[in-house]
């Protein structure tokens, strides 16, 4: 993810040198905002959201208005604004109304995770149903490991433990098959955390340890730091 962020920043810088607002908006909406949010880089996300808003105020590029609205609300959510989820949902409705639904399954998945964190399980299930429907319709295979992970997390939270573990393993396989290392790390951390909760510390450590050690970048990303903490808990639990 460090490489992806750096590449997107370089592409934006090139577009800024040329002065093409459309090109700048494309990079911000399709790369910099999503990557910054995925990494949990609040400073980069705030900067990207602000730059995109400024461009949209100068140029009528309606297709990116819902993107700017979504990530502005997502930033507010990460900063603790409880009302942000409603604006995220509103932005998704704007996507659907505009019929520009590229990458929509992943964005709905992001909203579903917000609901899961707040234990709004009915809303989370509805959001996942919608995301999975668009994923199936559009065959956006890149989002499938993440949606499967979130469905596993939902099952875990409603007490369907066996189904949750089955889905976590499925999400891991999907991530590995597509080479999505960041999704693999996120899923493995979730599954290891689930194993920790049930006292299976050695299994959690064996699952997550080699994967965490295999990463050569992204050490300050939200997912790497979270996975490292889960692994620390697993190692400590296995020794006790």
Report on the architecture of this protein.
The chain has 240 residues and is an all-alpha fold. Helices cover 81% and strands 0% of the residues. The protein has 12 helices and no strands. Helix 3 (42-58) packs antiparallel against helix 4 (65-78) and helix 6 packs parallel to helix 8 (144-157). The protein is globular, with a radius of gyration of 18 Å.
Q: In total, how many beta strands?
A: 0
Uncertain runs are: none
Bin the strand percentage.
under 5%
Order of H and E elements: HHHHHHHHHHHH
**How can the largest sheet be summarized?**
none
Q: What value does the average pLDDT take? A: 95
Overall radius of gyration: 18 Å
Q: Structural class, judged by helices and strands? A: mainly alpha
User: What overall geometry do the principal axes of the alpha carbons give?
Assistant: globular
User: Span between N and C termini?
Assistant: 35 Å
Helix content: over 70%
Q: Note the total helix count.
A: 12
What is the structure about, briefly put?
This protein is mainly α and 240 residues long. It contains twelve helices and no strands.
Task: List its traits.
240 residues; 12 helices
Topology overview:
Layout: H1 2-18, H2 21-39, H3 42-58, H4 65-78, H5 84-98, H6 104-117, H7 121-138, H8 144-157, H9 161-178, H10 181-197, H11 201-214, H12 222-239
Helix pairs in contact: 1-2, 2-3, 2-4, 3-4, 4-5, 5-6, 6-7, 6-8, 7-8, 8-9, 8-10, 9-10, 10-11, 10-12, 11-12
